[in-house]
Design brief:
heterodimer, A: alpha/beta, Rossmann fold, six-stranded mixed sheet, five-stranded antiparallel sheet, B: mainly alpha
Chain lengths: 308, 314
């Protein structure tokens, strides 16, 4: 219901403008359908209080996603679009399945036996079903980066941490490595702090620096989507503020999907927010709408702190 | 007073204080008992070592290391024994470590958790408890006769490798398990394959634990007597195995693998069983040296563990 209504809303909002938004299955002509496939579906978003709408590309569309741990169905019929170069936040009480959902995007569940996906997460523009049976999870992980809850740098040098993803991709040239490592560290707002000690152990950094190093490590391989799994839950408020600021700037280069326990954080950093409860998406909308005027009672109860 | 009558008796401050001093006394008692037990163990080892050193004191000299066994106690040395022991340890380490580490990696990182791997795991643990004489009998049938290795250094090294394989596997698994899962997830998240995660992360970060396990295994093997007597170690030899190094190409030779040998514990056993009391001093001196070799190896293991702990602090 959420996906179709959002996409429908996207369509109706876009029809008033010259730029026709195309929801893939609802196009009228075959030609338009092909174009839609080439460009991928679109979604509308209203900016600031005026709610002036603009259309955005969809980077990934989740459709009827179910996920099972053995017999246990942990995710139930999830359907949302993930807007390209925007920040989408997943919020909800502990155990609601938001991390489980996030880990479907880079197939981390495949590391455990007895897990199973149903439905699809289609990555645009090349229409790749990330959870499809024929797709290699390693290929998915090479295209979709992840930053974990607890900073987890390798016990190697700062340089080697960032270079590792490139080395996995066969980059051997020292100049290229140095250049890309610098770019990634700059992208993660860490360069100035570590440029003189790239060969020092990453374990000598502070918690906040470690987490930014992990972000740089993920950025170095230019992922199409960057997943954040409660990236600031182990950090102090100052380090948290830096990471939040960084995530806001990251939307220029990458699509961000973030799980957070902290509703203020979701309100601050996200453009879109999905509220999850007991493995279902209760409400998905623009962050501004979710946090000011949610349409579901459960969402309102959660964001006003009545449970969770 | 109504106030105290409402408080439960176990919350009364006087009662709490009495209980606390009793509980702290128990704490102290355990500290003392623990200390006594530990010192007793150390004292036994120290007495043993000092006793060996005193008994063998008249034999400690350079000649003792460079002389072959002899019928005259004062001219007998341990040259063949320590060379034999060293070569056997090399064979043992080269066989047991790669196989043991590979088995541990498979069990920890690759094997699915099912009844088959559960049986393998139970077996590995049980193998560590098999009496060493049984390994000796196995080796006699398999290596000496079936594979035709004869009473050679190769046969002895392989036998002791079998003996310490479970120790190496268990220690390696512990070391691998100590690598946090978050590190594996970080590497998988970047698109690493299982082998890349293992060779780039799991193995390098667990090297300290693996080396410690290897050395503890070797220090168990160095003192083993029963299995190598079973496969027929000679106790009286007056020649060295062929040298592994050659002056002409290819400079290295494996002829020594086929040579007969003796080893430190065998030499000791031989001297102890002689009626002439002069040989008892030789046995004591050899025992002190063997014990010293073992302690040295354990010391190296502790040092390695310390070094790696300092470098990698999760």
């Amino acid at each position: 219901m959420l996906d179709s209504s959002t996409l429908a809303r996207a369509q109706s909002a876009g029809q008033s403008r010259e730029e026709q938004p195309l929801a893939n299955e609802q196009s009228t002509s075959a030609v338009a359908d092909d174009e839609a496939r080439a460009a991928g579906p679109r979604i509308s978003i209203s900016v600031d209080e005026t709610r002036k709408s603009r259309t955005l590309k969809v980077k990934a569309a989740v459709e009827n996603l179910n996920f099972y741990y053995g017999q246990h169905r942990a995710l139930k019929n999830l359907s949302i679009p993930i807007a390209d170069k925007q920040v989408t936040a997943l919020i909800g009480p502990s155990g609601c399945g938001k991390s489980t959902f996030l880990r479907c995007f880079n197939r981390m569940h495949d590391l455990q036996p007895g897990t199973r996906y149903e439905g699809s997460i289609t990555l645009y523009p090349d229409n790749l079903n990330l959870v499809g049976p024929g797709i290699d999870p390693i290929e998915v992980r090479m295209r979709i980066g992840m930053v974990f809850q607890k900073p987890n740098p390798f016990p190697k040098s700062i340089f080697e941490n960032v270079a590792y993803g490139l080395r996995l991709r066969g980059v051997r040239n020292r100049a290229t490595l140095a250049e890309e490592v610098e770019k990634a560290l700059r992208g993660a707002a860490l360069w100035d702090e570590v440029k003189d000690r790239l060969q020092d152990s990453a374990l000598a950094l502070s918690g906040g620096q470690m987490q930014r190093l992990c972000i740089a490590r993920a950025l170095a391989t230019k992922p199409e989507i960057l997943l954040f799994d409660e990236p600031t839950s182990a950090l102090d408020p100052i380090a948290t503020a830096k990471i939040e600021e960084l995530i806001s700037t990251l939307r220029d280069q990458v699509t961000v999907l973030i799980v957070t326990h902290n509703m203020q954080q979701a309100a601050r950093v996200s453009d879109y927010t999905a509220f999850m409860y007991l493995g279902e998406i209760i409400e998905f909308d623009e962050a501004a709408k979710i946090f000011t005027n949610p349409s579901k009672k459960a969402t309102e109860d959660y964001i006003t702190g009545r449970y969770g | 007073m109504s106030g105290t009558s409402m408080t439960a008796p176990y919350l009364d401050p006087k009662h709490v204080r009495e209980g606390l001093s009793r509980r702290k006394l128990l704490d102290q008692v355990f500290v003392i008992v623990g200390l006594i037990v530990m010192l007793a163990c150390l004292a036994i080892l120290a007495v043993l070592f000092i006793d060996l050193v005193i008994d063998g004191s008249e034999r400690f000299s350079w000649d003792f290391f460079t002389n072959f066994a002899s019928r005259r106690a004062e001219r007998a040395g341990i040259l063949a024994a320590w060379v034999g022991t060293s070569l056997i340890m090399i064979v043992t380490a080269l066989c047991a470590v790669p196989v043991g580490v590979a088995a541990a990696i498979y069990l920890e990182e690759y094997a699915p958790k099912n009844w088959f791997t559960a049986i393998i795991e139970i077996n590995v643990t049980n193998l560590a408890g098999v009496p060493s004489i049984v390994y000796g009998l196995l080796a006699l049938g398999l290596f000496v006769y079936q594979f035709n290795l004869g009473q050679s250094i190769a046969a002895a090294g392989l036998t002791l490798a079998l003996l310490i394989l479970p120790i190496v596997i268990v220690a390696t698994r512990e070391a691998i398990r100590a690598v946090p899962n978050a590190i594996r997830e970080a590497a998988y998240g970047l698109g690493a394959t299982r082998w890349e995660v293992t060779k780039d992360h799991v193995l390098p970060y667990s090297t300290g634990g693996i080396l410690t396990g290897m050395i503890l295994g070797l220090s168990r093997a160095i003192g083993e007597t029963a299995p190598i007597i079973t496969i027929g170690a000679l106790s009286f030899i007056a020649f060295l195995p062929e040298s592994p190094f050659k002056s002409e190409f290819p400079f290295i030779s494996f002829g020594w693998l086929d040579d007969p040998f003796t080893a430190m514990p065998i030499q000791m056993f031989n001297w102890v069983s002689r009626p002439d009391p002069a040989f008892q001093a030789n046995a004591a001196a050899a025992g002190a040296i063997l014990l010293g070799m073992t302690l040295l190896m354990n010391g190296v293991a502790i040092w390695i563990r310390y070094r790696f702990r300092k470098k990698i602090n999760w």
